[in-house]
Amino acid sequence: MRKGKRIHSFILYSILFALFMGLGLPTVVQASESNAKKGTAQNPYIITTDITYPPFEFQNDKKEYVGIDADIINAIAKDQGFEIEFRPLNFSAGLQALEANQVDGMISAMSINPEREESFDFSDPYYEAGTVMAISENNKEIQSYDDLNGKTVAVKVGTTGATFVEKLQEKYSIKVNQFEDSATMYQDVVSGHSDAVFDDYPVMAYAIQQGLKLQLPLEPEKGDVYGFAVNKGQNAELLDMFNTGLANIKEDGTYDNIIDQYLDSDEKGSQNGFFALIQKNWRELLNGLSKTLLLTVISFAIALLFGVVLGFFAASPYAILRGISRLYVTIMRGLPMLVLAFFIYFSIPELLNIKLTAFIAGVATLTLSSAAYISEQVRGGIEAVSGGQLEAARSLGMSYGKSMVRVVIPQAIKIMIPSLINQFVITLKDTSILSIIGIVELTQAGKIIIARTYSSGSMWIIIGLIYILIITFLTWLSTFIERKMINA
Ligand code: GLN
């Protein structure tokens, strides 16, 4: 009887814990973020930036955010005496984060245009750029937009380059490949999948100077300027400080120094070989890997707890508990993880008017999704033994709880272990999806290095090898533990 009670309290505590994770944490985050004055060290302005966009924003090998945009806003923050914290997100996710008030401002080589001015307030323009077309170094066929008829073009989601190609599509038959970051989109042309790419002139010119095998057959389009953006009607004070600070750093020469530092150097980037890439970037890769493991372990531990509870619900004699479990599994199984991640990171904060860190949103995504699969494995394990065994135990006079604890669960655990190990590996691999909300786990670390070094080819081999090595090691470790447990 006491064991039966213990199970009930275990279930109760687990539900309370899950509720705390689901509702409690965001409230804590909200409380801590909204009380203090903004722009202080305790409550810095959160600024999103696309850290795969050199020379405007990228991460150097010391893991610092640098580039024209990053240096400009840092100089302005110093001049005006406010504190900022960067939230790295790709361009289209950055736009969403700003719209959902997940961040206070966006500096991301962002062009000011009338459509965006409907949703955002822009600073004074701080840089003049322009969309340009690039083609492969040895392509002689494409010399004008007319030559794009029947060709494939790479663009980045949500950018002015993509909008420009949409306009060209009204005139020509062009197939479009969409990408989330510039380095991958350039690589698509270098490796011959796309015939041309459209992006901002300074960024593309810089990449070519660094050794990227593309060329620019045409002059850039005119009339494009960059601005710092805040959400419409929000953070007016920040926008004012940006404008005043911008005028100041232009006057005292800081602005020109920043631009010269990135654009006036003739220094050619060195192309890195496979081993040089590992040697130069192993620290970043290791940091990414530890984030991947941390996300996996935390999420899997909570998901295990939550999944076991739901699994017991699913195998319980009570229809209402079975119904709750089935509903949960149906929803989670039906949702692609990417959609779930965006929902948690963008929609929930907007609906509840709170702020969530990317890490908490990431853990919540992995936990909620894995819990559904774990609960199915737990249900499967219990059902595989429960039938006759449960009846036999009950006919010996044991209660339901006691029969489960003494007879069913020990056998079910042995059945469940291999699929739980499998789920652990899946959870680890799923962490790579979270790069989309800006978490710098292993995949995102790879993207950041590629953006800086233009080395997609070798880098993805390195990243792939690290995943295979770590997963093989963990699988070996868990099989070892499993054997020990079964023999025990
Ligand atoms: N300037 C372009 C735009 O605003 C591209 C920006 C970017 O890719 N970060 O759409």
Automatic annotation (TrEMBL):
SMART domains under this entry? Answer: PBPb, PBPe
Query: Transmembrane stretches, by residue range?
Result: 293-315, 327-348, 433-454, 460-481
Tree of life domain: Bacteria
The record's subcellular locations are:
Cell membrane
Stated membrane topology is: Multi-pass membrane protein
Task: Recite the UniProt keywords alphabetically.
Answer: Cell membrane, Membrane, Transmembrane, Transmembrane helix, Transport
Q: Which GO terms describe its biological process?
A: amino acid transport
Listed under GO cellular component are: ATP-binding cassette (ABC) transporter complex
Q: Locate the ABC transmembrane type-1 domain: which residues?
A: 289-478
Q: Which PROSITE patterns match?
A: ABC_TM1
Q: Which family does it belong to?
A: Belongs to the binding-protein-dependent transport system permease family.
List the protein's name.
Answer: Amino acid ABC transporter substrate-binding protein, PAAT family /amino acid ABC transporter membrane protein, PAAT family
Taxonomic source organism? Pisciglobus halotolerans
